[in-house]
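S., here's the first fold you wanted:
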Amino acid sequence: MLIAGLLVAVTMITRAVLRSSEQRLHGHWVFMVLSFVAFALNVAAFFGSLLILRGCFHGWTFPGWVYFLANPVWVWPFLILFSAKVREILVQYVGDVAIYIRPNKLDRFDEVRSKIKETARSVASALFTSYELKAEAGATDKFQYDKIALVGHSLGSVIAYDTLNRLMLDDWLCKGALKVAQRTATMVTFGSPLNKTAFLFTIQGKDALHIRERLACTVQPLIMSYPKFRKFKWINVFSRNDIVSGHLKFYDLPGYQDDPVPAIAVQNIKDRDAAVPLVAHVAYWKNKTVWRALLLRIAPGSIVPTPDLAHLVDNSAGPATV
């Protein structure tokens, strides 16, 4: 385990060096070598343990440096640091998501969950209901923010999704006075567990409805009517090395995620720089994929799009408030 931890540390340091030198991380030979070494060590550890149990190495002694690595002086500090990192990822992120989406209103987290939802709704609502002011005449009928972007990471992406649905539903009941759907420039989710929460809807019900049908039963405008509410690009950045995030496919009609993906569907983009398993969930903040995708939507022309982000360019998207 100590050697595996050292390999992870070397991988993270190498990733930082390559990023700082503006070299492309994806497919770099250093990561290929480290991946091969890590795989070989795991295979050797598995089969070596089996051979030791069968007595194949009877009488054979390990070199002295192996016993040095097993010294508690090194092992215990490493295990404490490793456990703390695992706890940060699994408990802080995965645990928070589980608490937030738990459906039982009688559980002890209901008050916290309600406060989170209400705080997010009030902040977003303040942006959508803000009008320009004139020095003499007072309020005008012109909104202060014509375009607003919602960005959320991990649990924040679930909150952003719930908040936008709530605002769109309220606006729908008010006959579209705030034009929430039209004024939403984009929604960017990254490290998002939304696909996992969609799956939970299927195991909490009693019948066998389709996943999307079960989501629609909770009255979510973003999946209820595309022409009326899905008037913006929903960008989802994920990594296969991130156990929390994933390719969002349960929030579109069947066939919408086929190639080519329609502009109205969720635009799933891989963050190829999130290369280290487990740590990938918090690596999006330091990588460029999320921020390039966001800039292409809120500030068209500010950067040159890469080939994997070219489909996000829309010259009609003006400056937005994030």
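And the second, which I think is the more interesting of the pair:
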Amino acid sequence: MAHYKDTEKGQGLFLTVNLSEQIVPGTFEYTLDNLIGEKLDLSIFDRKYNNDETGAAAIEPGILLKIILYCYSMGIISSRKIAKMCETNMVVKALAEDTEPHYTTISNFVSGMGGEIEKVFSEVLLVCSGMGLIHGKMFAIDGCRLPSNASKEWSGTKKELREKYERIKKVSRELIRKHRENDRLGEKEKTADREKVKQLEHKAQRILEFLQTHEERKGAGGETIKSNVTDNESGKIQGPHGVIQGYNGIAVADGKNQVIVAANAYGSVAEGQFFPEMLEKTEQSMRTIKGKKHPLSGTTILADTAYFSENNLQEAKDKEMEAIIPDAQYRNRDEQIKDSWGRSGKEKFDARHFTYVPQGNYYLCPNGKVLAFRARVKLNRNEGNKYEGKVSDCGKCPYAGQCIRSKKKTYRTLYIPILKYAENLAQRMREKIDKPKYRKIYSRRMQIIEPVFADITYCKGITRFTLRGQGKVNIQWLLYCVVHNIGKCNTAERRKRGAA
């Protein structure tokens, strides 16, 4: 017969716990505690407090910042769960210096940071620079698409939301009619049905109020896009696992150690339109770090095809940067990629293969047929001229497989953007990216920026935003980026400790 040890649940214990000993050198929490306690200037938070003569004493901003960043580093982003960690986790308790802030205190602190988080982000960057983690010669930009605290159910154009409102009201009216019929027959009404009517009426009222108080949302090209009743600044975005209602967290990372030097969150999948703004933020950060008036001069910026546009290339040139941003068709022109994908080795025809005839304002195709001018049209955010071939010319053309892009079309259409600038940088970029030298440089993009998002989402376990509104979501995105950068400081300290 089995014999087990005796246990005593009610046994009292007297344990000696020194909170400072819970923060072990070499750990993330040690770097975090030292950085916030010794190296960052948090005086900017003092302006938010006016309790020096009256009111209760407040918890120090540095303490709140430490426990929030540490919990974020473990993928805990709920204010309630962070507050619980202050009671149950010994490391968090040590970082909190035995304070137990209420979850509303944590929530209000995060959502109310605003300009303060940008100051903290800059201060951490200065620490990273002081440790030699930032080279400032090559950068990569990309976006990380995360769900927000909003539901796709509440998305739609104004027309779609109005139709949804009518459907809800129709169902509600039918339930009320049944209730009245049951009352007439003397049957007892179900409580669940009454609650369902209340829920439907509440939903309908929310949609109606939204329709009355909000304008139709417009995309980057002026097209109508779907609004969201819960968080109208979020957007329907194609994520890695399908369409999400969320935000696109864009980051610019330095090429040496993947330290994030600029970051911002946007409720749009069209990343390219934010390239100029992100360059400005990068320039501000590097000016703070380097102390130079033009810190981006002579540097290189890498971006994927979503950022390819004449405007973006011109923006980089204005800052004296070399931008390596391939066009959407560059893979089709790469023989190695075509071979590995089992594609035809025949080259696809683009605008370079067509000859313009200014006397008649038309183009000649590789087979010598005419593509006539049809109209001036909008091309995303730019204008362009549209030229079309004839069905009779294209139908039996020996080059049709290389020329006509869509299986549904039987003739070739050519769109020629109207240039706003004296030089065509987009065309020059197409020619550059086909050269082995620039393809090799561009291959570094994934090495620089993708590990950043892998660290935040996979390693740290941060997979969504919990706040609503672009301003508050941007605070949270910057906090995620600060956690990543502090992790880089911790890695550098451990390497230094190991080398010593």
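Why I say that: The chain is about 45% helix and 15% strand. The two ends are 56 Å apart (CA to CA).

Talk tomorrow,
H.
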